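pasting input
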Amino acid sequence: MSLSLGVRRIAIAAVGAVLVGLILRAIMVSRIDRGDAWYRVQETGILRVGMDASFPPFESVDADGRYIGYDVDLAGAIGERWGVEVRFVNIAFDGLYDALLAGRLDVILSALPQDPLLTRDVLYSKPYFLAGQVIVAPSLNPVSSPDELRDRAVAVELGADGHAELVRLNRDRGLDVHILARPSLQEALATLAAGEAHALVCDRVDALPLTASGGYVIGLVPLSTDPYVAATGIGSPRLAAELDDALEALRQDGTLAQMQNDWLGR
Amino acid sequence: MWVGRILALAGLALHLSVPPQRLVLLGPTQRVVTMNSKIGVHTRLTDEVEEWKIQRTLEMVREMGAPWIVEYFPWAYAEPREGHYDWAHADMVVEHALAQGLTVIARIDYVPEWARPEGTTPRYIAEDDYPRYARYVTAFAEHFEGKVSHIIIWNEPNLAFEWGYRPPDPAGYAELLCQSYRAVKEAAPATQVLAAGLAPTLAPPGDEFGLDDRLYLQALYDEGSGACFDGLAMHAYGYTFAADDPPSPDRVNFRRVELLREVMVANGDGEKPAYITEGGWNDHPRWTRSVSSLQRIRYTVDAYERARLSWDWCEAVCLWAFRFPVAQRTYQDRFTFVTPDLIPRPIYTELARYAHGEPLEYLVQEP
């Protein structure tokens, strides 16, 4: 089949336009990508993970100077999936975001809650752990929700966030919880074990080991939820997407559950 | 005609649909009742948008018995474009503080985007931009003359993080301090200019992240900046140590400020006052540098008492941090005295008893 000269010219022009478009797009993409930390990580084979290693069981430094904890293992698992070496950078918590903005880090992984004030500056991953205040009660007499604490005695560590949550329940919802504030979590737990309190309020991180033996259960409705996430720079959408994919894969294959069991006893 | 009526009705409906704003009146000027005139706190009202919460926060400071506050006034917030000042929020904070009878120390840093190179952090300031910072601080001092008595030039410049992730540079900071001091003194001579509180750290020279605060302060004097401040801001964190733990060059504790005082005296600045503008203890159970809630209460009362009885060179002890506008949901929250929704933590109620000479409640539980 033969084409007329005019049709040929139009076809050649169209193909040319498409080629020019593809070349321009490639140039634009490469310009965007240059700033994406994903490519730096791939080129260097090093993932720089920032953390404030003073917060066990998520991140701390052991007696031999090694980084240990849930987030440390998580970073290692991500590095393994990507085939890159993980280098930890230990920075005080209030300096982590600036270190990311200054290009000293690729990722923050440090028991980090999402900060809605910073979403113009950083990209957050999907949550990989759910912290927050929960209700713990004996398995034989469980408490599902805060409403069931009305007029009940509840043990809590003095000054803890759970203490403030109980004051808030009384102030805002009039539950008349009888707050038994104890100097430490251990003493609050002893109060519960002695039957002086109907329940205990504490952080989910502290609650998980208590439930390991089966003697206690965590209420279905938490008092507060603090999802932990990873953060990358706003100019690294590819790294953020790869991070989400890696976290999802680690969730699917049971790695996250295993880490939680290793570091939190459940 | 009917179109106009419909528009008027629509306008009225729109007006009525807006939730009413809580009416906030300054009220008569209050007086702080306290048995310790050095008690202070670092408030953090920077990002607090609701006026009634600003007022209530400052009321609670007064009711606790603290006559001093340090507040953070970010440069980037008040000068969004060069030469265009927006004092609305700062005015609100200062007016409410004064109405509660509080003395305000202003910390000023956080560089606007227009005053720093692209890709730098808000703590980065190039030497060429020092005059811009000095102009802003001077404008602040003039605007708040007679209302804000003390201004802190920058914050913790001995940390790389607070110096725009560059190595700490005492000579650079000394120049920034001196330019600012001279400009402020010319415009508002009564304003007290404080050199920045240094981060307590043992970092040796050449460390990537910081420089020992004692060495940094001496370096400032070596640069001749002793003539460029009326007083020194100090940071006094206790971490895991009690308030009476003795100072030592190889230890970061509350009394480390006594070593900084020695540096001041050794350099002929024994007559100048110091102000603790950050410090205190944290009681998060999992942070490795924290103490228990009861220990925190004990150490904090002891710290205020030490300043009252033994530190005649220290004008105020403003501990970090009275309240955050929103929860950080990290161990940082356990530095606070009051929750974001204004629930007093036990340390607040106990300090109020201490400041008013009333019997303490929690400390009697101590073993």
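fyi The first helix of chain A runs from residue 5 to 34.
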